Amino acid sequence: MSSQEDAAPAGKCPVNHGKPTGVQNRDWWPNQLDISVLHQHAPQANPLGEDFNYAEEFKKLDYEGLKADLAKLMTDSQDWWPADWGHYGPLMIRMAWHAAGTYRVQDGRGGGGEGQQRFAPLNSWPDNVNLDKARRLLWPIKQKYGNRISWADLFILTGNVALETMGFKTFGFAGGRVDTWVPLTDIYWGQEGEWLSDEQRYQDERKLDDSLAAVQMGLIYVNPEGPAGNPDPLASARDIRDTFARMAMNDYETVALIAGGHTFGKTHGAGDASLVEAEPEAAPIEQQGLGWNNKFGTGKGADTIGSGLEVIWTTTPTKWSNNFLWNLFGYEWELTTSPAGAKQWTPKHGMGAGTVPDAHRPDVRHAPNMLTSDIALRMDPDYEKIARRFLENPDEFADAFARAWFKLTHRDMGPKARYLGPEVPAEDLIWQDPLPARDFAVIDASDIAILKGKIMASGLTVSEMVSTAWASASTFRGSDMRGGANGARVRLAPQKDWAVNKP
After folding, report:
1. What is the dihedral of CA 43, 48, 52, 54, to 10 degrees?
2. Active site residue 349
3. 454 and 330 in one domain?
4. Candidates 98, 262, 360, 410; catalytic one
């Protein structure tokens, strides 16, 4: 081939952008063990360097100044992305919730502990539509406080401040989440090749793959329209119970989280979802990291399209109240559709009309609406008992939501000893795996020598001693800093009864 034939046409990029067609090593040896996950946090990927100590930097943070700036942001509505009701609080709660809500107990992966919502695939999940705007709104504050606050901590703290600015008293906040700088490759999100597909995660009788905690690819938990879009509240309740349990939430905490979170804000489905363009990872470069460009009307404000659902739950969507539960039980509900065609619920006989303010048009009012996953809290007998109890006991509801929110946003951080900051709650919580306070002197070298002698004289074989130590320590997992030898839990249920530990 001549040099003229080799050359790229004038004005064209000389790089071949086509998909590589050559056979790769993985094609030749598909069963080869992939060990690349063992070095996915290479030092070269970290712009802060190997010597950076986040805990020390966090100590220098003007914590109250940061919270004040976040509080100011909540009502500083921007023309490029106007805040619903002039308050970004509901958007920021959703950002924090979706950062933390990917956590699952099975392997401890997911969650908000590393700031992964900045990267693919999470930054482009359908369930995270328009959260790119929430993160962009935080940029000036992150620039101001620099490395003294990680993105991971900032996401969660912003959710707390959002709640506080809307009249809710939170349980507390702990910093200490260290950012990662590349997308994680060791988290299994499912095998489906299409967004919102569930074709490969369910077995017979809707048994979800043990490794997963969401019903469809690209969702945090459940489909709000019901399983696979079927608006059956009881079937939705089964999905809710399954997925929330995989995030370590019981029924009481689940009802508190859903009812508390849906006290605020709205969903967005002003028009045809086909008018929304590509997610951030697929968007053209001129969008500068943003995605979901909306061609409907102005593309923002009253014309915003997200999930396709158009639901405002309460009469006071930027203020803490019991109104979500009051509406849930105060009206009888019937199925309807959003302007985008999504299945949702509205009060029967036109009840509630005009009680709910529009998010952007002062002269427009609505009736409240509910999601199928909301109606599930009324139709499922166990959820219904809890929800009615919260309705009748608003102080208990507020405390339950505060504790459930704290658990949601901190469950993946490991033991309390890792918590940083002035708002760490004094109370120890059972899910933190607390250890008894030490009331004895730490052993010294002499004590260690005596103990070694007694162990050697115990009659145990070397194999027995090594296997016992291994059984105690090997339960540790770095994903959520749980397990391990601390606490000697190998002598307690359930570990003592595991078959591998030869009970």
Report:
1. -120
2. no
3. no
4. 98
DSSP class per residue in 412-444? GG-SGGG-BSTT--SS--GGG-PPPPP-SPPP-
pTM of structure: 0.93
Judgement on whether residues 302 and 373 belong to the same structural domain of the protein: yes
Residues 304 and 217 in one domain: yes
216 with 298, same domain?
A: yes
Residue with tokens 């900045």: 118
Q: Residue 273 falls within a domain, yes or no?
A: yes
Element (H, E) at 234: helix 233-245
Query: For 393, how many CA atoms within 13 A lie in the half-sphere containing its CB?
Result: 12
Q: Which helix (H) or strand (E) holds 336?
A: strand 333-337
**339 and 462 share a domain?**
no
**Does residue 315 sit within a domain?**
yes
Kindly state the tokens that stand for 323. 């109104």
Q: Say if residue 326 is in the same domain as residue 389.
A: yes
CB 240 within 8 A of CB 309: no
Please name the residue that has the structure tokens 């090594």: 466
Provide the residue range defining the domain that includes 491: 445-501
Amino acid at 427: E
Instruction: Say if CB 174 and CB 153 are below 8 A apart.
Output: no
Q: For residues 219 and 125, give the distance between their C-alpha atoms in angstroms, rounded to a whole number.
A: 7
The C-alpha atoms of residue 472 and residue 403 are separated, in whole angstroms, by 31
Is residue 374 located within the same domain as residue 486? no
How far is the C-alpha of 374 from the C-alpha of 240, rounded, in Å?
A: 10
Place of tokens 């059984």: 471
| 489 assigned to some structural domain | yes
CB 333 within 8 A of CB 347: yes
How many structural domains is the chain composed of?
2
Q: What is the mean pLDDT of each run of 10 residues along the chain (503 residues)?
A: 48 57 86 84 88 98 99 99 99 99 97 98 98 99 99 99 99 98 94 97 92 98 98 99 98 99 99 96 96 98 98 99 99 98 98 98 98 99 99 99 99 96 98 92 96 96 96 95 95 95 90
Close Cβ partners of 256 (under 8 Å, ≥ 6 residues apart): 386, 390, 397, 400, 401, 403, 404
Torsion from C-alpha of 305, 308, 314, 320, nearest 10 degrees:
-60
The CATH number for 339's domain is 1.10.420.10
What whole-number distance in Å separates Cα of residue 348 and Cα of residue 355? 14
Task: Label the pairing between strands 207-208 and 365-366.
Answer: unpaired
34 within a domain of the structure (yes/no) = no
Handedness of CA 336, 340, 341, 342 (dihedral sign): negative
